[in-house]
Amino acid sequence: MSGRDALVALTQESRALSAVLRDLEPEGLKLPTNCPPWDMQELVVHIAASIGLGDTGFPDAEPHAPLVGAADYYRRPERDTQVYRQNNVDQTQELARRILASTSAAQWFDEISHDSIAKLSQEDLDRIVLISGRGAMRLSDWVVTRVISVAAHGLDVALTLEWTPWTTPSALRVMRPVFTALLGIELPVDLNWDDQAFLAAATGRRPLTGDERTLLGPQAERFPLLS
Q1: In Å, how far are 6, 64, 167, 221 from 186, measured between CA atoms?
Q2: How far apart are CA 155 and CA 163, in angstroms?
Q3: What is the pLDDT of residues 76-110, one digit of tens each?
Q4: 191, 202, 194, 195: which is closest to 224 by C-alpha?
Q5: N or C: fewer beta carbons within 10 Å in the chain?
């Protein structure tokens, strides 16, 4: 996967979500989501915050620092703790209170996503950078994790609205290798999963069926691969 592939995927996935949010009626932004206790506005603020770059840029990693891949980004033990999740909830709700006092969630997502994509388009995506809390990463791999954030939470938006998911083909292409790496094996052919089904199961947006667990064998215990 090239850095360009990752950036195209982030651009297209962000634009797809922006289009949905622009057409959403005001009451849609007040709906409770499948990410409790967030409502739709808070969820959208969280998505925007997850891809926001701010003004600090990406510092270079130390020479010869161990390289962390996109799949490794999700192999942090703290991600599975209640403390991590509660901090995520609390920080998002506090940020949403500040943001929504002066603008809409949809507008803020538009502004943040456009700003981040513009800044990333000026970067060398093959550069090895220091990512806070994770270490040295190729910038293109970090961008893939941002694609996953927008796509997985975009699926949350679709589930909340009871709409057909709109995940873009470019996003599905760059995410699949990460899910495969986290699973540790290629998907059994008999599962007949397309990339959209893999996204939903990998991120815990739908549970595995009994037949799927049988086909996956011991690897079924890895699901969800990330949340």
Answers
A1: 21, 31, 22, 15
A2: 9
A3: 776 677 888 888 899 999 999 999 999 999 999 99
A4: 202
A5: C
Pairing verdict, β 128-131 and 67-68: unpaired
C-alpha span between 40 and 46 (Å, rounded) = 10
pLDDT over threshold 80, residue 121 = yes
CB 112 within 8 A of CB 48: yes
| Contact predicate 156/33, CB 8 Å | yes
* Alpha-carbon distances of 138 from 100, 114, 127, rounded to whole Å: 34, 22, 6
Dihedral over alpha carbons 117, 134, 5, 160 (to 10 degrees)? -70
Which residue type is seen at 130?
A: L
DSSP states along 35-79: STT-BHHHHHHHHHHHH--TTS--PBPPTTPPEE-HHHHT--GGG
